[in-house]
Amino acid sequence: MKERLVDAAYAAGWAGLRHLPEPAARGLFNTIADVAWRRQGKGVRQLEANLARVHPDADAIRLRELSRAGMRSYLRYWMESFRLPTWSRERVSQAITVKNLDQLNEAMAAGRGAVLALPHMANWDLAGAWIASAGGFPFTTVAERLKPESLFDRFVAYRESLGMEVLALTGSSVSVVGTLARRLREGKLVCLVGDRDLSEAGIQVDFFGEPTRMPAGPAALAQRTGAALFPVTLWYDGPMLRAEVHPEVVPSGEGTRQEQAAAMTQAMADVWAESIREHSVDWHMLQKLWLADLTPRRAER
After folding, report:
1. What are the tens digits of pLDDT across the range 53-98?
2. Which tens digit of pLDDT belongs to each residue from 134-184?
3. Strands (E), the chain
4. Which of 287, 274, 245, 244 is CA-nearest to residue 74?
5. Could you give the CA distance from residue 236 to residue 179 in angstroms, rounded to a whole number?
6. pLDDT tens track for 96-137
7. Residue 292 belongs to what H/E stretch?
């Protein structure tokens, strides 16, 4: 019953909220964000715990200010996502500016293929819609399989409507890694959200001074295929979405492949940490991330 209700709520969002006047939609989602923030449920409490790692000198009042702004940013993501299918290509093009895009253009023009790896910042769906349309690079990505299945199907259909090829992380007879590698060898683009390990088999990194795990996929794919690996960060700037393509992360050539992958993943984590520290309200991490917060069994893996 609960799964059906969740699916119905998302269906209503896509069907109805996209047609609200934009000021009304913005006001509605700000209200939802503020109500959730005042109730201080599990997600909000975890967001504040995560922000405390980002800003260790912040007092309780400052953390509450950051979490409120963070919830508004998070609900802005959902408001935009519900409305994005109705946006014209011109609207998408005007909604985002991208810094250092020339690096990606050069890698793609050379036929190398590229992996864009980004954290859960601002609106990665809008960034994806932009790169697939205005940027001129339809791409392949991976999505966590949601329950109920009908909800997952809605997310896949939504993202495919924006120009993405979406592979289910689990529950498919198709090899996700094999498909991604094949796309890269064809000189195509792969985009992966990489700041939270869902497989429980990621690479341990230092993140804001504490250990956590991040997916091995971006670095491993770049090593396996020779594709360029670019960390990307996103943040809101008033009505605009800003994106930055950071310098390519390359294997050092020293140590084992696993050691090189670990070094590449740490380099990405360092880039993301710098941007998250500056734009922390746009980092939508409402889940446990650091090993110290996870169950002992998972933390030991």
Report:
1. 999 999 999 999 999 999 999 999 989 988 887 888 899 999 999 9
2. 888 999 998 775 455 655 566 667 777 777 888 877 655 568 899 999 999
3. 96-99, 114-118, 139-143, 164-168, 189-193, 203-207, 210-214, 228-237, 240-245
4. 287
5. 32
6. 999 999 999 999 999 999 999 999 999 998 999 999 888 889
7. none
Tell which phi-psi region holds residue 224, choosing left (phi > 0), alpha (psi between -120 and 50) or beta. alpha
- Token pair recorded at residue 124: 């990665």
C-alpha pair distances (Å), 169 with each of 94, 97, 152, 166, 180:
32, 30, 11, 9, 11
- How far apart are alpha carbons 47 and 134 in whole angstroms? 33
pTM given for the model: 0.89
Instruction: Report the sign of the C-alpha dihedral through residues 141, 180, 233, 261, in that order.
Output: positive
Helix, coil or strand: residue 31: helix
**Hey, what are 43's tokens?**
């997600």
Kindly state the tokens that stand for 205. 């990194």
Instruction: Decide if 220 contacts 240 (C-beta within 8 A).
Output: no
